[in-house]
Write a structure and sequence with these properties.
The protein is α/β, with parallel strands linked by helices. Strands 1, 2, 3, 4, 5, 6 and 7 form a seven-stranded mixed beta sheet that branches.
């Protein structure tokens, strides 16, 4: 039996991440995917502001692209960005396998933070409204030896992920524990997003 989508207006997800798309789908949203194509830059220096700023840049880029398609209609764009942070150092996606190894070696047997920023751009009655927030989760790795790191890196699962790992894939066996929202580590704090949209009467 087909159920009705949660959202009352069209939603565009400004991300090519299959993990974010999967979480949105599982939650019951109906949406279109149009990834942002801008080159991201930020002058922020704290992890929470970095992810909020980057998420807002992505959402704004897609908003400008699609607004002509919704003349006289309400619509919404969601942008998101995720980073890993350890001891003040921001770890993005690795450039190559050596950088992935170095990142994972740094995080082995330690606790780090995962930040996801979410930007919501909502055109309602012709006016653009902007909302953004972030979520933080603490993640602790087990002690991982070099052989285990190289074995994981050989799967290529590390290459498109902040911090060079995915919590939901083959790396899961190296996760000692988390404190906070698991789905935030996957790439989208879906519960917080749902409740923010609920406040706006979009769901």
């Amino acid at each position: 039996m087909k159920t009705q989508p949660l959202n009352k207006i069209p939603i565009t997800l400004a991300s090519a991440s299959p993990r974010r798309s999967e979480l949105m789908t599982q939650a019951g949203f109906s949406f279109t995917i149009i990834p942002s194509t801008i080159e991201e830059t930020t002058l922020s220096d704290t992890p929470d502001k970095v992810v909020e700023n980057l998420a807002l840049q992505k959402a704004n880029d897609v908003y400008r692209t699609i607004k002509k398609n919704y003349e006289g209609k309400d619509f919404l764009v969601i942008g998101a960005d995720t980073i890993v942070c350890y001891n003040g150092e921001i770890l993005g996606k690795p450039e190559d396998e050596q950088e992935a190894f170095d990142m994972l070696k740094l995080l082995s047997d330690r606790t780090h933070q995962v930040y996801t920023g979410v930007a919501i751009l909502y055109r309602c009655d012709g006016a653009k409204q902007t909302y953004f927030f972030h979520e933080k989760t603490d993640v602790t790795f087990c002690s991982i030896n070099d052989y285990e790191l190289k074995d994981y890196i050989s799967t290529k699962d590390c290459m498109d992920k902040a911090g060079a790992y995915g919590i939901q894939g083959p790396f899961a066996k190296h996760i000692k524990g988390i404190h906070g929202d698991y789905f935030n580590v996957v790439g989208l704090p879906i519960s917080k997003l749902y409740h923010e949209l609920k406040k706006l009467n979009i769901v």
